[in-house]
Design brief:
Blueprint: E1 19-20, E2 23-24, E3 31-32, E4 39-45, E5 48-51, H1 60-70, H2 79-94, H3 111-123, H4 132-140, E6 161-162, E7 170-171, H5 173-180, E8 193-196, E9 201-203, E10 209-219, E11 225-236, E12 246-253
Antiparallel strand pairs: 1-9, 2-3, 4-5, 4-8, 6-7, 8-10, 9-10, 10-11, 11-12
Length: 259
């Protein structure tokens, strides 16, 4: 893991802008078209969550397809992989809420979708169970010694994952949750609206690293509406059970994708 850390230490200082290029699926020539402004809205009525019908659309066949996609692939794009990748592109472009069984890394999931899945989950942190959003974010955080994990090892058996803050350290799920609840990140829990405010910006050798800025709208304890921008720092895993998966290696306060 030592090789994964240095290139992220410059994110808060380096003002160079990466290149914005189309997001390509692993082992595929297909292009994922990403809107620079995408939104999720949710309201609360006496503690009851009321979401838009578009966001809550669920179809049984959608669940089945994503469940297959979440199982991963052997590194080669089969005909089924191609169909699944096209389906993920459709879900991504139509801004549908991601099904629960799809809330884990898969090589077919583009980096923009990795961000969207986490934001949708964090927006309703305690649905369908307590801290589901935090658990989803933990599932997409880069695990320790990720490239050493043998193929087929389940995510649940990984005991620690990369912290969101600038320090290069790995946390248990409980520790990770405490970081998310810190005032720096707490606006990301049960917020009312979010949008992407930058394209996915790729950088580094082989464009294996990416930056995505998002803006959240949330309410303080006093009921005041506030906005805050965060930048997801992602990296593509090159080997092991998570090969070709995009994982989060940091989340910074501020916009580092549009500099």
């Amino acid at each position: 893991m030592a090789a994964l850390a240095p290139h992220h230490s410059w994110l808060c200082q380096d003002q160079r802008r990466g290149s914005s290029i189309p997001d390509r699926k692993p082992n595929s020539s297909m292009i994922c078209e990403v809107s620079s402004s995408e939104r999720r809205r949710v309201g609360f009525n006496r503690g009851t969550l009321v979401a838009s019908s578009r966001s809550l659309r669920r179809r049984s066949n959608s669940h089945s397809v994503v469940a297959l996609a979440a199982s991963g692939s052997n590194g080669e794009m089969s005909e089924l992989d191609t169909v699944l990748a096209e389906f993920m592109k459709h879900v991504d472009s139509t801004q549908q809420m991601w099904p629960l069984e799809g809330r884990k890394p898969t090589a077919l999931m583009p980096p923009t979708t990795v961000v969207r899945v986490q934001m949708d989950a964090l927006m309703r942190n305690d649905w369908p169970e307590e801290d589901s959003g935090i658990k989803t974010a933990f599932a997409f955080a880069m695990p320790a010694r990720v490239e050493e994990i043998l193929s087929g090892k389940a995510r649940g058996s990984t005991s620690s994952a990369r912290a969101w803050n600038a320090a290069v350290r790995y946390l248990t799920l409980e520790e990770f949750g405490n970081v998310v609840r810190d005032p720096m990140y707490s606006p990301l829990l049960n917020f009312s609206e979010w949008e992407m405010v930058s394209p996915m910006v790729f950088h580094g050798p082989g464009d294996k690293r990416g930056l995505q800025a998002v803006q959240v709208t949330y309410h303080t304890e006093n009921g005041d509406e506030m906005k805050r921008i965060y930048t997801f720092c992602l990296e593509k895993v090159l080997a092991g059970a998570y090969k070709d998966c995009w994982m989060v290696v940091g989340l910074r306060v501020g916009d580092y994708a549009n500099v």
